[in-house]
Specification:
Helix content: 25-40%
Radius of gyration: 22 Å
Number of helices: 13
Order of helices and strands: EHEHEHEEHEHEHEHEHEHEEEHHEEHH
Strand content: 15-25%
Bound molecules: nicotinamide-adenine-dinucleotide
Structural class: alpha/beta
């Protein structure tokens, strides 16, 4: 198969969808790899590294027109819509339930699109989202520690303390992938860490693997209110799948928090778990409400592209290999997780939530494939 890797053009996006190591694997499987010139630069991969791996460096026009399978990180933006076409399969983060213009562009173009974020294994896990949660979770205490410094507007507290001085207190709301990883780093920094979680099973698991190193408490409105009063750094890490994040931290509760404490609301990409959270960017990451510094960057992993690119491609490559080795139809027939990733096939929406979100007709994937359209 001829596999293309397009350069990301969204502002502040430095990741790339395939590493030179991944390119070599695909070439060794007998596939042809086309990499748009400078696609890897933001992640510190020069064109020559891809060439040494057996890939060809091509232009923007060539990567879109010659590829059979096109790999990207972020969804196409408006200037890329005219490049979408029948006969091309796009494998990338799409998030089209929240993007009607893109959904229509995909449907109208006849392209086949597979979304990283809806690839789902039988146990409901989202393997292509998990590494970004790990990274955002690990970045959260780092960002929080930075903004707790006095010149940055914070309380002026060192999370780890020193001998004879109490360490800082970190409150993590939600003990899933983000919350667990945030807690691991906060503990490593020497902070006192509390995790509030709602799922008893998850809490039992965290107790087993983190016993003695964190305080685990059942999440409730009262518990949150009490714990907020003690915290120097609060990390919002809740998720209710398919829904907006619950507003667990009310504006009133901010009044009870310490002056110049910091809230890192990682759940901001689902609306945030504080009433006062609104999305910010890496260019302008924080703002203050009622004395509490809010850090609400919606694409935290974008700050560390060298790590993020490797973590992402570690999990996407096996699916890319499946698509390349077995063809798109063969791969999605063999692998139910990959099949759940298919959102649009040749003008038909095959992911029910996307069809519902935009009032479009939903076609079962089998029916779309049976119509011989992929
Ligand atoms: N800002 C970013 O750059 C970025 C990057 C990655 C992920 N995220 C977001 O971070 C959030 C967490 O992601 P995740 O992968 O850890 O999800 P996850 O499903 O692994 O974990 C969420 C946890 O929240 C818990 N929870 C739900 N309601 C709760 C409540 N009321 N109180 C306490 N806990 C509650 C769940 O039981 C679960 O354990 C998501 O919104 C995700 O989209 C943001």
């Amino acid at each position: 198969m001829r596999i293309g890797v397009a350069k990301e053009i969204k502002p502040q996006e430095y990741r790339v969808a395939l590493t030179p190591a991944g390119a070599r694997e695909l070439v060794q499987h007998g596939h042809e790899v086309l990499v748009e010139s400078a696609a890897g630069i933001g992640s510190a991969f020069a064109d020559e590294a891809y060439e040494r791996a057996g890939a060809s460096i091509v232009t923007l026009d060539e990567v879109w027109s010659r590829s059979e399978l096109l790999l990207k990180v972020k969804e196409p933006i408006a200037v890329e819509y005219p490049r979408l076409r029948e006969g091309l399969t796009l494998f990338t983060y799409l998030h089209i339930a929240a993007d009607e213009p893109l959904t229509r562009a995909l449907v109208d173009s006849g392209i086949t699109s597979i979304a990283y974020e809806t690839v789902e294994t039988g146990d409901g896990a989202l393997p292509l989202l998990a590494p970004m949660s790990e990274i955002a979770g690990r970045l959260a205490p780092q960002a929080g520690a930075h903004y707790l410094e006095r010149p940055k507007g914070g309380r002026g507290i060192l999370l780890g303390g020193v001998a004879g001085v109490t360490p800082g207190r970190v409150l993590v709301i939600g003990g899933g992938i983000v919350g667990y990883n945030a807690a691991v780093i906060a503990i490593g920094l020497g902070a006192q860490v509390t995790i509030l979680e709602r799922s008893v099973d998850r809490m039992r698991y965290l107790e087993q693997i983190m016993s003695g190193r964190v305080t685990l408490l059942m999440s409730s409105s009262l518990q949150i209110e009490e714990a907020l009063k003690e915290a120097d750094l609060v990390i919002g890490a809740v998720l209710i799948p398919g829904a907006l994040a619950p507003k667990l931290v009310t504006r009133e509760m901010l009044g009870g928090m310490k002056e110049a404490s910091v809230l890192v609301d990682v759940a901001i990409d689902q609306g945030g778990c504080a009433e006062t959270s609104r999305p910010t960017t890496h260019d302008d990451p924080v703002y203050t409400v009622d004395g509490v510094v809010h850090y609400c960057v919606a694409n935290m992993p974008g700050a560390v592209p060298i790590t993020s690119t490797r973590a992402l491609t570690n999990v996407t490559l096996p699916y890319v290999e499946e698509l390349a080795d077995h063809g798109v139809v063969g791969a999605i027939q063999r692998d139910a997780a990959l099949a759940r990733g298919v959102n649009v096939v040749a003008g038909r929406v095959t992911y029910e939530a996307v069809a519902q979100a935009h009032g479009l007709e939903y076609t079962r994937l089998d029916d779309a494939l049976a119509a011989g359209v992929a």
